[in-house]
Amino acid sequence: MKKTPPPKKKRDETDQLRDEYRFDYSKAKPNRFASRADPACVVVALEPDVSRVFTTADAVNKALRALIEAMPTTSRV
């Protein structure tokens, strides 16, 4: 007969994150993938309703480029 492990305790629903955490930054390491990133690219977070419409980066870029073209140009003095 196999022994079954005791059931895991469920987290108390009142258990919340602490207001403050103290991180030991002396043990932090540099991001080893940072050199792969294109410095000209910017990452943004889309709201869920927007991400349902624009599912790819190309779709977002195409829409933004069309918006830029439609904007009136202003001359700076």
Topology (elements, then pairings):
Elements: H1 48-53, H2 57-70
Task: Please sum up the structure shown.
With 77 residues, the chain is mainly α. It has helices at residues 48-53, 57-70.
Q: Could you give a short account of the major beta sheet? A: none
Report the β-strand fraction as a percent range: under 5%
Instruction: Please tally the β strands and state the result.
Output: 0
Helix residue percentage: 25-40%
Alpha-beta classification: mainly alpha
Weakly predicted, low-confidence segments: none
Terminus-to-terminus distance: 87 Å
Mean pLDDT over the residues: 85
The radius of gyration is: 24 Å
Count of helical regions: 2
Query: How would you describe the shape?
Result: elongated
What's the helix-strand series? HH
Oligomer: single chain
Primary descriptors:
2 helices, 26% helix, 77 residues, mainly alpha, single chain, 0% strand
Question: Would you kindly provide a written description of the structure presented here, covering whatever features stand out?
Answer:
The chain has a domain at 40-72. It has 2 helices and no strands. The chain has helices at residues 48-53, 57-70. The longest helix has 14 residues, at 57-70. The model has no long low-confidence stretch (mean pLDDT 85).
